[in-house]
Amino acid sequence: MAPSGRGCAVCYNRRAVKNKIHPKWYPEAKVSCACGSTFTTGSTLPTISVEICSACHPLFTGQQKFIDTAGRVDKFNQRVALADKKKAEAKARKQKKDADEAAAAAV
Length: 107
Hints:
The chain is an alpha+beta fold. It is built from three helices and three strands, in the order αβββαα. Strand 1 and strand 2 form a beta hairpin.
């Protein structure tokens, strides 16, 4: 036994690390970006596709570029336009209802 009271490192690792529970490791996993650059890294997946990488990200390139993932800005603008349309319809319904009530009260 070692003076620390834990035993030797070989014995510790033999008991602590379990067999057959870890995913398969691919040391040469291919990463491809939407901009066209590719590189290799270690991963549990053999191939990885990413939308943005260090070759095209504004933080690394120093150029300002707006990154609109999955058209989020367009989706937001559509929701705003739909909300404005519904507000206008509700206002028109309220005005029509008020006019009908005023006409009924005048009779």
